[in-house]
């Protein structure tokens, strides 16, 4: 059954409007369209504040009840708000309330009509209305009191009203959520609001990502280390611009807008600490707001030395060591006897405290070498925790030579500890990574080819390899395979072809492939049958196969020229002569290096007179000339040469603090 508008209008027209005291009104149990308790209670306080300010603007709908009372069938929230005001003493018990009295048989229709045909106000209209009230001269506190909300709620609604009209229209159309609208309202620039929203991808319109884009270039006072160090109070006293986020759960959160001012304040504050550091005897002290690793990557570092403890310190160390040892003994006794757990933890706490004291005392024995501090410096900066931090003992590139000399002098005076750590000077490599990989691949192939004819060397090499793994220990073995032996082998065939485009045309490759083909034809097709097959062969056959499989696993391809190659010892044992396997030509070498490098090679291989006529030629002609000039010389780049074993007299000592490059593990 559908009620027509005419029927509803007739009911209202026939119903008298009057006023009824609050104490005569009760909530109807029979004629409400809404079930009791289904109305949200959170807004009753706000509604009460509105009624207190403006009165009851819309009458309640009632029916006549027993004993002179009236049952409210529409307007239950208003009745609750009125009861709240009366209970607080803001309204009299007999305060007259405007009502519309309807017949009982039409009461449910009237209640349903009021609830169904009511169109709630859009939140955007609410925000604009709050802003208009303030614009008419109302104070934030007055508006808050009138609607029963806090002043912060009023300020937030006013702020939401300042969002760009374009974005507010999208909000009305449910294309922007309230959570994103609050983020947009945090900034006042409409253009920035619109541009930032437009830049958001449709799949990532999250409030946190939107906030990240909007606040680029701003500093969060509660998270940024420099802001914590300067303090918000000092920044504001200096006239720094800031922005407060009304919608943040943390009312102390502030965004600092003047980054140069913040950094100036931090720098000025750091100067005091810098003066103290300079007075310690360092050559220089830099002040940086933040420590940038890239700025000092080329700097070396001075290391602390350990001084001998004086009598008092030695006694203290001995005492601490004794007390710590005694506590450990007590703890072990308790553990062995399954003693009291609380006592054990108490002893453990005492031990940790003494160990901290021991550590602190030990740290006081580490000092900067006074004679070297004059060649090094420090950087005073703000640490990640918002406190002053100091990077001590940096060595500028221009001070490197003086520091090396001073460190050498200190080592001659009996200092055994390495005093300096200097970065290796970066120079442009003579050979590109691609060329080094190509050259070292040819070297590996040549070693493999040579090894095919030396089963004695292959046997010694694999035995040494296994012995190294055995006696090195099992620290790196996290799991074991189901194989009989924990030995792996990887054929380097594909790696050689990948590293050197001309590998297939080389003599070494041809020899290796011939041997591979011969064994492929000889071995059983079923690899599981290789073991019984080998048992039936002569030892020479087994050794020959071992030699082949060992040879094809030799590695040693590099991207940059190493000081020592992993296969160096093997190449030396084989008497490797790379001139038998590789020749410098245009495609193999000269096309891949500079003209200046070609002239250096000709000078080295022949003499300067041979290189001189080539200097005036273009690159192609220089390549051709170099090929002809070097023919038959047997010249090899350093990466293809086999180094001789150094004698005892040729071994040089490295400067303390400068470590030689470790040999690559085979």
From TrEMBL:
Pfam families given in the database record: ParB_N
InterPro entries associated with the record: Chromosome_partition/occlusion, ParB/Sulfiredoxin_sf, ParB_N
Region spans: Disordered: 408-428
Any single Gene Ontology cellular-component annotation: chromosome
Superkingdom of the source species: Bacteria
Alphabetical GO biological process terms: chromosome segregation
Span of domain ParB-like N-terminal: 18-116
Protein name in the entry: Plasmid partitioning protein
Organism: Candidatus Accumulibacter appositus
Lineage: Bacteria, Pseudomonadati, Pseudomonadota, Betaproteobacteria, Candidatus Accumulibacter
């Amino acid at each position: 059954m559908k009620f027509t508008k005419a029927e509803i209008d007739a009911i209202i027209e026939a119903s008298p409007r009057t006023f009824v005291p609050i104490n005569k009104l009760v909530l109807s149990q029979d004629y409400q369209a809404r079930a009791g308790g289904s109305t949200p209670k959170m807004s009753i306080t706000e509604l009460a504040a509105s009624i207190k300010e403006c009165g009851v603007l819309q009458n309640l709908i009632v029916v006549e009840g027993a004993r002179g009372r009236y049952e409210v069938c529409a307007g239950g929230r208003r009745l609750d708000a009125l009861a709240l005001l009366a209970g607080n003493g803001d309204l009299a018990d007999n305060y007259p309330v405007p009502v519309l009295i309807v017949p009982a048989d039409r009461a449910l229709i009237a209640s349903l009509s009021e609830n169904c045909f009511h169109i709630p106000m859009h939140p955007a209209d609410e925000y604009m209305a709050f802003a208009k009230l303030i614009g008419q001269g109302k104070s934030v506190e007055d508006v808050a009191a009138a609607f029963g909300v806090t002043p912060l709620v009023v300020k937030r609604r006013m702020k939401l009203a300042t969002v760009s009209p374009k974005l507010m229209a999208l909000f009305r159309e449910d294309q922007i959520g309230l959570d994103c609208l609050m983020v947009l309202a945090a900034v006042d620039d409409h253009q920035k609001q619109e541009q930032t929203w437009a830049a958001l991808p449709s799949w990532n319109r999250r409030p946190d990502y939107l906030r990240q884009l909007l606040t680029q270039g701003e500093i969060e006072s509660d998270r940024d280390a420099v802001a914590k160090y300067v303090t918000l109070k000092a920044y504001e006293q200096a006239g720094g611009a800031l922005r407060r986020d009304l919608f943040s759960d943390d009312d102390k959160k502030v965004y600092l807008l003047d980054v140069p001012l913040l950094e100036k304040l931090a720098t000025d504050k750091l100067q005091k600490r810098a003066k103290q550091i300079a007075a310690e005897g360092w050559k220089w002290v830099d002040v940086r707001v933040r420590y940038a690793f890239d700025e000092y990557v080329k700097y070396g570092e001075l290391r602390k030395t350990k001084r001998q403890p004086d009598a008092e310190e030695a006694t203290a160390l001995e005492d601490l060591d004794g007390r710590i040892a005694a506590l450990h003994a007590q703890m072990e006794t308790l553990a062995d006897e399954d003693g009291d757990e609380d006592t054990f933890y108490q002893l453990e706490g005492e031990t940790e405290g003494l160990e901290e004291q021991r550590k602190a005392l030990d740290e006081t024995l580490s000092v900067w070498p006074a004679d070297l501090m004059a060649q090094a410096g420090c950087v005073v900066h703000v640490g990640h925790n918002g406190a002053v931090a100091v990077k001590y003992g940096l060595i500028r590139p221009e001070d490197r030579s003086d520091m090396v000399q001073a460190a050498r002098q200190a080592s001659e005076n009996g200092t055994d500890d390495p005093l300096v750590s200097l970065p290796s000077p970066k120079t442009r490599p003579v050979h590109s990574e691609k060329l080094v990989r190509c050259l070292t691949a040819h070297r590996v192939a040549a070693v493999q080819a040579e090894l095919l004819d030396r089963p004695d060397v292959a046997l010694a090499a694999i035995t040494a390899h296994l012995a190294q793994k055995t006696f090195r220990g099992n620290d790196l073995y996290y799991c074991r395979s189901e194989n009989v032996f924990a030995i792996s082998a990887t054929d380097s065939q594909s790696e050689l072809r990948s590293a050197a485009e001309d590998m297939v045309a080389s003599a070494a490759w041809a020899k290796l492939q011939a041997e591979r083909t011969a064994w492929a034809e000889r071995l059983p097709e079923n690899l599981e049958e290789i073991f019984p097959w080998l048992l039936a062969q002569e030892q020479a056959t087994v050794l020959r196969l071992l030699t082949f499989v060992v040879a094809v696993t030799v590695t040693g391809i590099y991207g940059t020229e190493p000081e020592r190659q992993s296969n160096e010892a093997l190449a030396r044992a084989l008497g490797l002569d790379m001139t038998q396997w590789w020749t410098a030509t245009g495609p193999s070498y000269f096309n891949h290096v500079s003209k200046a490098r070609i002239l250096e090679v000709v000078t080295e291989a022949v003499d300067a007179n041979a290189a001189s006529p080539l200097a005036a030629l273009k690159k192609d002609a220089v390549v051709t000339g170099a090929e002809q000039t070097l023919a038959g010389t047997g010249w090899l780049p350093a990466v293809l040469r086999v180094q001789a074993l150094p004698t005892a007299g040729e071994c040089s000592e490295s400067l303390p603090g400068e470590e030689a490059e470790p040999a690559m593990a085979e």
